[in-house]
Specification:
354 residues; mainly beta; four-stranded antiparallel sheet
Length: 354
């Protein structure tokens, strides 16, 4: 009787593990392939060889790139080189990516930038917020951009127990932001277990010097985040659920869910087209290729444009798609004056004139 019970429990456990594995493959879109959607007038950006995970563009055309992200278990083309912040002036006829100097006292050797966001204060001071993973920990760094010197002055490092696994950030004040946690845990093994079991414990946190609170939760893996042009709505990408959530922002900074847009791809970072309010999404058509890197079968890239997301039937179009022969693992797409920048998790970056 005891052996029969043990065998029954083992069978149930194996069946559960098998079901979770199959579900994870589906969440990763492990069998999906893409057909190329090419753009004319594109070239790879010189100087970006090991990823440009996030991009943010100022109204004057200055684009910031977060480069060199490293995560446990994730492929890297420059594993021993610290990350950095690059800048490109999109008003120039032939813009180049230049690395910004960072003020003394900041630990450059452990700089591991992830999501970024800019905020322009009432006195035109430009702040750059950077999700940082020094030694695979989690901080948010706030810098002041000094344009004349092409440099960043480090102002503050933020750590908080409600920010255990920060992915992306959207600044809403000089020291105020919303941030996504893509995992509930910070320990690598528990992160893996959480993802495997599909616990839906990830969240969005609001941070200010006076208050820190969870304002949305229940995501599979909350990833990219941005804000509507009228500042009324927050958009959140749930990468493994293939969804974009639209949340209404209230005066107390709390969020309530308004709608969910389901897609057929892993959605990463979200950018807003300033001329139209459309959402541009950097996507991973096949997450298994992204996380289990094979140079002979590299991860593909995909960029979507979402028009009228608040409407009953938003329009979703594919702007760009590639099988990895040009661009591997697209994570972000940003546009300015018909110039499109596409960044990747750990590969190159693309500049296109539309």
């Amino acid at each position: 009787m005891g052996r029969l019970l043990a065998l029954s429990l083992l069978g149930i456990a194996l069946a559960l593990l098998g079901e979770r594995l199959l579900a994870l493959r589906n969440r990763l879109k492990a069998s999906r392939e893409v057909e190329s959607v090419d753009l004319p007038n594109c070239h790879l950006i010189k100087g970006i060889e090991a990823g440009s995970e996030d991009i943010d563009i100022l109204p004057n055309g200055l684009a910031f790139f977060s480069v060199g992200l490293k995560c446990p278990g994730l492929h890297s083309f420059a594993p021993d080189k610290p990350g950095g912040i690059l800048m490109m002036d999109l008003k120039e006829e032939n813009p180049r990516a230049l690395e910004l100097r960072i003020s003394r006292g900041f630990n450059l050797a452990s700089f591991n930038p992830h999501g970024i966001s800019t905020f322009i204060d009432s006195d035109n001071t430009v702040y750059l917020f950077v999700v940082n993973h020094p030694e695979f920990k989690n901080t948010v760094e706030i810098f002041k951009f000094e344009e004349e010197e092409n440099s960043l002055l480090h102002l503050k490092t933020i750590k908080h127990e409600l920010l255990p696994s920060v992915n992306d950030i959207i600044a809403v004040g000089p020291a105020h932001f919303y941030a996504t946690n893509d995992h509930y845990f910070s320990d690598p093994f528990l992160k893996y277990l959480e993802t495997y079991l599909n616990l839906h414990w990830t969240n969005v946190v609001y941070y200010s010097p006076d208050e820190v609170k969870v304002v949305a939760e229940g995501f599979d893996s909350a990833n990219g985040i941005n804000i509507s042009p009228d500042k009324k709505y927050i958009y959140v990408a749930d990468i493994l659920a293939h969804e974009i959530h639209v949340l209404e922002k209230h005066p107390n900074m709390n969020l309530t869910q308004l709608k969910v847009l389901k897609l057929d791809t892993l959605v990463d970072n979200l950018s807003i087209d300033p001329s139209s309010g459309d959402i541009l999404v950097g996507c991973h058509p096949n997450g298994q290729k992204l996380f289990v890197y094979d140079p002979n079968n590299p991860p593909s890239s995909e960029v979507l444009r979402i028009q009228n997301i608040l409407s009953e039937k938003p329009t979703v179009t594919t702007v760009y798609a590639n099988n990895g022969s040009v661009l591997q693992g697209s994570s972000v797409a940003s546009v300015y004056d018909r110039k499109l920048l596409i960044g990747t998790l750990y590969h190159r970056a693309l500049y296109c004139q539309l």
